[in-house]
Design goal:
Helices cover about 30% and strands about 20% of the residues. The protein has about 450 residues and is of the alpha+beta class. The relative contact order is 0.14.
């Protein structure tokens, strides 16, 4: 079966790698090095025509397909049998075309956010990207997407205007609010496993630069900083989207001295205001005398560096939950496990302020047009060994459990790396399952989250 598919694809001139082939190990290795994938093979289509050929060949041979670009979000594949699954790597499907008059970007599915940000910035326009520049833009959008523009502009997927996708019949479809509107609804937030997306059209935002940065203190200051931020967020304008993190850095010589070997509390984010008004918004936090204050007017591409995400592939495990509130009592519970004097395997314990437009549905939005919860709790632990992964997950789950009284019971695909999480209402979940059964009755596509 696998050999048959491999032969068909070789005849169609699609680059493929089977176990034992040169290049297979590199091809199957994701950005998150803590996850080992052993698929039946890996294919690298170069255009939509090759994607169609790949889908038709898989359907004929009984194999399944899973789309992937970087492999940041492969956590849900831990323990999943991929012996009958070909991973479809979209590395060659790259490129961005900007229509400044319509304020639209056409983004090929293998394109990273960094390239989209730079292309749009050339026209004085912004995109609702994630915190890391080396994440697939399309993969992020199919999971809804929580950006630092979001308290004003909402879930990133709400700005998707059309999608080009190869479905289980091997046909390339253009879907939008008029053409296949049910599938368009399902893809925007529930898109993993509905087909192989080739490109999306995304509405751009009218910002030529942005007021953004970070405030940093030693972790010993965390009790007053965390409590002050929790209080500040309750009245913060929707123009401000920020996160608070307790961060622990190993003593590495390549790190700058203000990070190396230190435990810190960091507030970072964006204030979509003119400079004078942005300074007023941040004044309460600045009165806490941060050790480092980088907030100011910066180029759009510089925003990708503010959150200090790892610049290279890293083995990691994460946990996540959505919180209805983050009040003084919740802040105290947070500090019990990651505040001064504690020891934890977590590199990052983050609370991101949501609410605002994140919480509002749009009439023409997708299945994930809003998120339930004004805050997102997210942890990251570096996991170079199975023992480190186990310890990191246990620490993250302990923090989730400590703040369970404030949890909504929902999760956001942007952060979740566990299968079986609940992203949607029961009604929407049923509708998504119905659409998937209609569009892919044989279960040809495998998503990183269950439907």
């Amino acid at each position: 079966m696998i050999t048959s598919l491999h032969t068909e694809l070789r005849l169609a001139d699609v680059e493929t790698h089977l176990p034992g082939d040169d290049g297979y190990d590199d091809a199957r290795t994701p950005w998150n090095r803590a996850v080992e994938l052993r698929p039946a093979g890996v294919a690298f289509p170069r255009d939509a025509e090759e994607v169609c050929a790949l889908v038709r060949a898989a359907a004929e041979t009984g194999l399944r397909l899973a789309a992937m670009r970087t492999g940041h979000g492969v956590g849900p594949f831990v323990g999943v049998d991929l012996s009958d699954v070909f991973i479809v790597k979209t590395d060659h499907l790259t490129g961005v075309t900007i229509d400044p008059d319509r304020r639209i970007a056409r983004i090929m599915s293998g394109t990273l956010w960094r390239d989209v940000v730079v292309a749009a910035a050339g026209f004085g326009l912004a995109v609702p990207h994630g915190s890391a520049g080396d994440v697939s833009a399309v993969g992020f959008l199919l999971g809804g997407g929580l950006s630092f523009y979001g308290r004003r502009h909402g879930v990133s997927a709400n700005l998707v205007r059309s999608i080009e996708i190869v479905t289980a019949d091997g046909e390339l479809r253009h879907v939008d609010g008029v053409h296949a509107p049910e599938l368009f609804w399902a893809l925007r937030g529930g898109g993993s496993g509905l087909g192989i997306v080739v490109a999306v059209e995304l509405e751009l935002l009218p910002y030529a630069d942005v007021y953004a940065g970070m405030l940093l203190w030693d972790r010993e200051r965390a009790p007053e900083v965390v409590t002050a931020w929790a209080r500040w967020t309750r009245d913060a304008p929707e123009s401000a989207t920020t996160s608070l993190r307790i961060m622990s850095f190993p003593p590495l010589p390549e790190l700058p001295p203000f990070l190396s070997g230190r435990d810190l509390v960091v507030i970072d984010g964006v204030v979509l205001e003119e400079d004078e008004r942005a300074d007023e918004v941040l004044a309460e936090l600045r009165r806490l005398s941060p050790e480092v204050d980088t907030f100011g007017r910066i180029p759009l591409a510089a925003l990708l560096e503010v959150h200090m995400d790892p610049p290279q592939p890293t083995p990691a495990v994460t946990t996540h939950s959505m919180l209805a509130e983050f009040d003084e009592e919740a802040a105290a519970g947070f500090l019990e496990l990651v505040g001064p004097g504690t020891r934890t395997p977590l590199m990052v314990a983050e609370v991101r302020h949501l609410g605002g437009a994140f919480a509002r549905s749009t009439d023409d939005g997708g299945i994930l047009s809003r998120v339930e919860g004004d805050y997102a709790l997210h942890t990251v632990a570096v996991a170079p060994t199975p023992e480190a992964a186990e310890a990191g997950l246990a620490a993250g789950e302990a923090l989730d459990a400590r703040l369970a009284s404030w949890a909504t019971g929902r999760y956001a695909p942007t952060f979740t790396e566990r299968r079986g999480r609940t992203f949607f209402s029961a009604e929407d979940s049923d509708e998504l399952a119905r659409i998937r059964a209609a569009i892919d009755p044989a279960g040809l596509f495998v998503g990183n989250h269950t439907v």
